[in-house]
Design goal:
Number of domains: 1
Shape: globular
Bound molecules: adenosine monophosphate
CATH topology: HIT family, subunit A
Number of helices: 2
Strand content: 15-25%
CATH superfamily: HIT-like
Distance between the termini: 40 Å
Strand order of the largest sheet: 1-2-3-5-4
Number of strands: 5
Order of helices and strands: HEEEHEE
Length: 111
């Protein structure tokens, strides 16, 4: 079982930001910004390459709700999903990173 499935099952603790029957948002254990939240579907899907349109149609409003709860929907944030080895995906369970809370630099940045 993958590490994020263990979090869903309660076998590994997490700091939950928001949860519903299908999705879970929790703090990243190794934050790369002042706010770094991970959003996952509870059902195991390996990556964005495998996710159904139906799941994404439900996950999109959930992610938006998480940004409201984090109070970053107006100040802005970066939404990232890494796919496969070249994409730098370490955990083989679809997840979106929400990075926020400060001006972000790095890849895909105009400055
Ligand atoms: P990725 O490289 O896109 O697969 O990102 C995996 C992310 O999961 C990294 O940012 C890790 O810090 C994070 N992570 C790994 N294990 C845990 C955990 N037990 N709780 C919270 N975040 C985790």
């Amino acid at each position: 079982m993958c590490i994020f499935c263990k979090i869903v099952n309660g076998e590994i603790p997490n700091n939950t930001v928001l949860e519903d029957e299908n999705f879970l948002a929790f703090d990243d254990i190794n934050p790369q910004a002042k706010i770094h939240t991970i959003v996952i579907p509870k059902a195991h899907v390996e990556s964005f390459g495998d996710v159904s349109a139906d799941t994404m149609s439900k996950m999109t409003p959930f992610i938006q709700e998480v940004t409201e709860k984090l109070n970053v929907s107006n100040s802005g944030y970066r939404l990232i999903t890494n796919i496969g080895s070249d994409g730098g995906q370490e955990v083989p369970h679809l997840h979106f990173h929400i990075l926020a809370g400060e001006p972000l630099r790095g890849l895909v940045n105009k400055s």
